[in-house]
Amino acid sequence: MRTLLEILPRMRALGHREALRLDDGYRTSGLTYRQLYQQILAFSSQLTQRKLQKGDRLLLWGENAPQWVVCFWACVSKGVQVVPVDARLSAGFVEKVISDAKAAILIHDGKVDIAPLRDKISSISFSEIRKSDRSVLTLETVEATPDDIVEIVYTSGTTGSPKAVVSRHRNLCANLGPFETEIRKYRKFAAVFQPIRILDMLPLSHMFGQALGLYLPILLEGALCLSPEMRPGAIIDTIRRNRISVLVAVPRLVEQLREFLALNYKIDLPIRYRGTIGVLEKWWKYRRIHSRLGWKFWAIVVGGAEVGRELEEFWSQPGIALIQGYGLTEASPVVSVNHPFAARKGSLGKPLKGQEVRIAPDGEILVRGENVASSYFSAGVEKEESEWLRTGDIGELDEEGRLYYRGRKKDLIVTSEGLNVFPEDVEEVINRHPAVRDSAVVALRRDGQEAVHAVLLLHDARADPNGIIRETNRQLEPDQRVRSWSIWSEDDFPRTTSTLKIRRSEVARRISDRGPDDEAGRLAGGRLERMLSRLSGIRPEGIEDATRLGEDLGLSSLDRVGLLSQLEEEYRLELDEVTFTELSTVGELRRLLAPVDIDRAGQRLAATGTNAERRVGPVRSEALRPASSHAPSPRWTRTLPVRTFRGLAHRLLILPVFRHYIPVKVVEGRDILAHIDTPVIFAANHQSHLDTIAVFAILPPDWRARLAPAIRQEYFAAWFNEGHRLTSKLWTGLEYFFASSLFNVYPIPQHMGGVGRSLQYTGELLDQGYCSLVFPEGRRTPDGRMLPFQPGIGLMAVRLQVPVIPIRLEGLFEIMPLHARWPRRGSVRVWIGQPLTFAPNVDFKKATQDVEEAMRRLGPSAVA
User: Fold this and answer.
1) Which residues pair with 376 in a beta bridge?
2) Which has the closest alpha carbon to 153: 386, 358, 327?
3) 312: Cα separation from own chain's centroid
4) Domain housing 849
């Protein structure tokens, strides 16, 4: 392979095989290779219309998404140089990159803030890529040579001047060649395991994320899976639901998965045999873990940061391969990797063929080969580099040629998320503070991972270090934020004799020996403060209600995930992710958890036998629900026997009887369904217990067979929850069984804390072509007038990205009002509204309001 252009015909040849899928935690969408190729054609044509030519630069700023993949390959086809930027970086840094790279256009997703850049550069959103003209039939590629630039990847200078690696076709193809050769040996054996799906949790803006996400799936003739989920439990659900074979992630995320599984499953089971029998024994003894992860899942590829021996040992117990290697952006990116079938614990594997790796006299790892980038890009100028790449890492090679990591020579800090932090960038910001005389930023190991630690020299010993760090973190990018601090007690830092540069290695050694100054304070404060202190490194007494989780505590996205998991474990409940992600301060988090603390206080007082429990009763927030309160999803209602029974019951009994006693007339909108496709969400006003049957009665047979009404879970509490009488439990269970069998209903809790799983199940139904029926008022009307809508309908519409069709029912309240035991005879009139659609970034409360207003415009007088 000489250029990446040779991969494009392979995509086309793979035809209807699955190429890419996106699981957003609620719905799953996918593209075949033919569809992916067609979208690349379409966007390539759009680039031509925008007058982009070979050699022009395009800045790509957004989270992992199918549109990211389409844009990258369209640029490759046109010779347009890609400048990928991490979605987590600020608009200020992106503006620097635009200026430095002289980018001609910006491609972005809907989550990044491009407002400050609108006057600086023209832009195209991911949603516009989705709408590109699909009628283009041929892909007009430019001629490419191995020396043509594919992308310019910025690796440093987040605060100072940006610096980027220039990656060419020959660099990338040299790195892919050994993988292609090895894959060819096993392709015929892999056929029975297709589709081999790789869940790539690394940003595609990083070279390692690209290698495992953009190139390897195509070489394997498999599929790339993307997901925004970051919570351990949600990732495991994604792995099982999508039958993932390989997970690609940073060590911090893999460690969180380990903690999640260790809490729920026994891991230290004895294995007596070795070899093939030993592998089978592991899979049998750890079958509960394999069942949880899915039986196709067998490997984790770790990149971006160092992996601890304990983590390797953990995953080897159930027989899941933890594959680690070594690489750098400059090496395009892989230098060495363990072979999946011949891995050595603690080793980074053998260098790839075509590369030379040697150890310098001082222990530094040096790399040379076609894969190594020969130039950097900075201040708008491309600069040549030396033949040997000096990695700045210390390593060893054993007699078999395996590489081992022994530490870092240079001052670069690699965070647990695999992101590079340059100390001088952080020091520059800290030193601007008027209370700081000088500072040294070093890597401090916390929980086996490196974290940014600041050592401060203050003008005045009375200055508040916590305040200094908070102010500094507000000016830093998320990955740069200081996690812990120390005060330097001497007059100055140790420095080199010639250049007087701070000897950071000496500072780090001395700080490591004594521990950070804020360590002593971690025993103070309450439970929440101590938990936040462990994550952030800020002393508990320095954490106040006004302290911001991001800017002041420096919590990254993965830290928030860890906090969410710890809170769920500590409080034994499930927090609503939507509510949690909207929290910005410690005070907001404390108020969210306050009802549980009050409830526990009442339980403790009750245990002492006092009368206080009469004054302190259980309180619940809508964002908090016990972890055990979720009802199982009734997938059995979609099996062929049940569907057949339900169809016959409707056709022969239920609907004929209902229509005989209660005639139903569609006044308006009967033709709307003829012009749209499933799936949709039907939203109806709630007049009586007969509303669901009325909606079944007005739908055509093919739509009727696809209807799945959502019911209030609390109505069947005796069946789903403990603490109810046996007779009540049996009677409620019987009601639920008949409702599920006859009407394909599924439970949704009214409290936000349980909405996540219900949304996932709703998304599963929609993916299979079913249409959810919801009653947004949340309860039946007591007087015939429509009640205000609950926000759940807006959340469903925005998160699930399907049209909402409002249905207005009139007459059912008079037939069977709220407290009636039996219906009266009467007639029903129905109005069906136009479908409503909402963009992914629309506020779900606004979406709820729009659905309610559309509903109120329907009906005889268009009033409530």
Assistant:
1) 165, 383
2) 327
3) 24
4) 635-856
